[in-house]
Structures are given as structure tokens and as C-alpha cells.
Amino acid sequence: MEEASLAFTPEPPALFTTATVSPALPSGPEGHRKRLRERLLRGGPEALADYELLEMLLFAAMPRADTKPLAKALIARFGSFGNAVSAPEPELREVAGVGDAVLASLRLVRAAALRLLAEEVRERPVLNNWEKLLGYLTAALSRETVEQFRVLFLDSKNRLLADEAQARGTVNHTPVYPREVVKRCLELQATAVILVHNHPSGDPTPSRADLEMTEEIRKAAAILGVVVHDHLIMGNGRHLSFRREGLL
Q: With left for phi above 0 and alpha for psi between -120 and 50, is residue 215 left, alpha or beta?
């Protein structure tokens, strides 16, 4: 009796294997958001354009919407991420789509940036940390649309005790009262101060009123033994130091 021959029939090739299948990203806004997050985590913020950073910032304020059109509209209106985040509320609300939630998100990121910069200034004596101080003041004041007068109160080791806005004014004038500055020095037991104000025009050149006001504060502070280390005028990307210019 002949043995039956056994025939071998190969299995058909598999169409898919677990080694080649990768999960597809969701389509629509959710997929776009996921891709932006992955680019940020892989390449850092430098991997994203200004409008893409704004897109991600607006995710929480607009959880189900495409944030790209609004982000591009904000960049088109204000020119950069920093300008958009720092823009005055009335101007922001003129952009279609900016409501309370969007405004709060923009204000939150600016507040967080300023808080971080302020903490860096407080870590060391201010006079030994000048570049960080200028970075903080530039971020805080250079985009203000009205004049704001601030005083940095320092202790005997020139560490920052407080950074306080003493007055807000108009586009070219801020009323400042030397007695209020001196009174606050007493309350904080400050031994030195740095005066700061901004010029919304962008030109940090001091006016006659700036010079006179600085001298009045210097004289009033000197009676209590408080030193005025400097008066800084912040413009748009520029600043002027009274001490450096020989004005104090």
C-alpha cells in the first residue's frame, strides 16, 4: 500500500502585523492639538511659531474650538506673542473671539512670567543682579500705555523688600508725592530705594518734571538716611539710568 503524500499549503500572508501598526492621530482640532503638544515636548518652545504658542495658550479657554484663527488674528493685530499677551484689555476685546475666558488666559501667562522674573530679582541683592532687574522692569512696564511710577524698596543689604506702584497717570504724566514714598520707607524699614517709571512714547529721555521730582524725593529720603540708588525710565526696549547719566 502506498503511503499518502502530505501536501503543504502555506498560509496567506497577513495583511497587518502588530509591528507595523501605529495608532492614528485623531483628526480635526484634537489631532492638531496633539501634534502641537508633541512638537513642544520634542523641540521646546523654539519649535513653535508665535501664533502656535498662542494657539496652545488658548486651548483651555476654547476647549472645543479651533484656536488657530484667533491666534493668527491676535498676531496680525499686535505683531508678536509678547505684544498680544501684554495688550490693553480694550484693544484685546476689539478682536473678534476675545471674551472673558480668552482675556483671563492671556493675563494669566503674563502674570506667571512676571512672577518668575520677580522671584529671580529677589534671590540676590538687586545691585548685583542688575540685568535680571532690567529684564523684569522691561517686561512689567515697557508695554504700558499710561505712565506708572514704581518704587523698589531695599533693605540694608540691598535686597528687595517690596516693589510697589505708587501712582498711575496719563500718557505723559504721573503725579508723585515724595512724602508718600518716604512714609512707605518708614513702614517697610527700607534703607534704600530705586525709582522707576515708564514713558509710553518709548523715548526714555527724562523731562524737566522727571528731574525735579527725582531731586525732591532724594532730599526727602536723605532726611531719614534713605539712599536713592537710581531712577530708571523704561521705554519700549530702551531704558535710561539717572545714575549712569550723572543725573543723580
A: alpha
Q: Taking each helix axis from N to C terminus, what angle separates 50-57 and 68-78, rounded to the nearest 10 degrees?
A: 130
| 151, 194 contact by CB (below 8 A) | yes
Q: Look up residue 41 and give its amino acid.
A: L
What are φ and ψ of residue 173, in 5° steps?
-155, 140
- Among all chains, which residue has been given the C-alpha cell 518652545? 45
**Cell numbers linked to 88:** 490693553
Report the DSSP beta bridge partners of residue 194.
152, 230
Residue among 90, 30, 98, 111 at smallest CA distance from 61: 98
- The domain defined by 29-114 folds into DNA polymerase; domain 1 (1.10.150)
For 174-194, write each residue's pLDDT tens digit: 567 888 999 999 999 999 999
Would you kindly state where each structural domain of the chain is located, as residue ranges?
A: 29-114, 126-241
Q: Which CATH number describes the domain made up of 126-241?
A: 3.40.140.10
Give the pLDDT confidence of 34-80 residue by residue, as tens digits: 888 888 888 888 888 888 888 888 988 888 888 999 999 999 999 98
